[in-house]
Amino acid sequence: MRFFVDKAEEKALNYVRTYTKHTIYTHVAFIRLSEATEIREKTRAELSSYFRQILEDPKSLVFYFANKDVLVFSEKMTNHHVFKILRHFGLHSPVERNFYKLPQNGECVEELVSRYIEKSKGGAALQVGKISHISKRDRFMGVEISSNLHTVIDKLRQSRKDNVVLVIDDDPFATNLINCAVGKTHTVIQAHDALDGFKKYAKYAPDIIFLDINMPSVSGFDFLTKIFQLDPQAYVVIISGDTNAANQQRAAHSGAKGFIAKPFSPDDLFRFINQSQRECA
C-alpha cells in the first residue's frame, strides 16, 4: 500500500489523469476523517500503518489531504472495510464509495476526485451524521434521501423481532419463487425495480437483500453502490442468471456477500439468510 501526504490532492488527480496501465476495477472511497475528534492526535505513520492493516490490499493507494480527509483507491475494498473504518474513528457520516473501471472511466473518476478535493477545502463540507446537500448522493432516481436515514434503519432493525427479506428483481417469477421458499419463516418484501427497492429498503430496513443485476433504469450494481454508501452494514446477495466471471468478480468487489445463480434452490437462499443472522447476532 502507498500512503501519500505531501501534495496529496495534486497526486490523486495526476494518478487518475495519467493511468494507462492494465485494466482494473477499483473502488474510490472518500472518507471525512477530518470529522473524527481523535484524528489530530494521530501521526502520519500511525494512519499509514492502520490503513495498511485494514485494507489488506498491497495495491491500495491512500491520499491524505491537507485537512485530514482521506481518498482511497483499492481493488479489494468492501462494505466490511468501510464499516470497520467508520467504527474505528467514531464516524457517523456515510462514506462515499464508488466502483469504476480504469482507464476507461478515467474522466468520470477525475471529475469525482475533483469534487472530493473541493469538499476537503470546505466547498461542500459534510456535516457530521448528515449527507451533503450539494453531493449527488442526496437523491436517488429523483427521490430525496433523508439525512438521518442510516440512524432510522438501525433503529428499525433493533426494534423488531421478525426477520425481513427484501427481493429486488424485475422478474415476478423469481420474486414469487423466493416468497414461496422463505415466506413461511420470514417476512418477504418484493420490489420490481431499483427505485421501488430503494423506497422499501428505507421503509422496512431488511436484514438481507436478494438483488438482481439486470433491471430497467438502474442496474443492480449501481443500486448496490448506493445502498452501501448509505448503510455500510447492508447485507446484499446478488441473484442472477448472468453468471459470467466478470459479474461474479464485480459483485464480490462491490461488497456483495455472495452470488446465487438462477435457477436456484431454497437451500441456496437459506444458506445466506442463516449466515446473515449469525453475522448480525
How is the CATH topology of the largest domain named? Rossmann fold
Radius of gyration based on Cα positions: 19 Å
Low-confidence stretches: 123-138
Structural class: alpha/beta
Number of helices: 10
CATH homologous superfamily designation of the largest domain: Response regulator
N-to-C series of helices and strands: EHEHEEHEHEEHEHEHEHEHEH
Q: Which strand order does the major sheet show? A: 1-3-4-2-5
Approximate helicity band: 40-55%
Termini Cα gap? 33 Å
Strand content: 15-25%
Summarize the structure.
This protein is of the alpha/beta class and 281 residues long. It has helices spanning 8-18, 44-55, 79-89, 106-120, 149-159, 172-182, 194-204, 220-230, 245-253, 266-280; strands spanning 2-4, 24-31, 61-64, 70-74, 96-102, 139-140, 143-144, 164-168, 187-191, 208-211, 236-240, 258-261. The chain contains ten helices and twelve strands.
Any overview of this molecule?
The protein is an alpha/beta fold and 281 residues long. The chain has two domains: 125 residues, 2-Layer Sandwich (Alpha-Beta Plaits); 137 residues, Rossmann fold (3-Layer(aba) Sandwich). The chain has ten helices and twelve strands. It has a five-stranded mixed beta sheet with strand order 1-3-4-2-5, with helices on both faces. A five-stranded parallel beta sheet has the order 9-8-10-11-12, with helices on both faces. It has a two-stranded antiparallel ribbon with strand order 6-7. Helix 8 links the parallel strand 10 and strand 11. Helix 1 packs antiparallel against helix 4. The chain starts with a strand and ends with a helix.
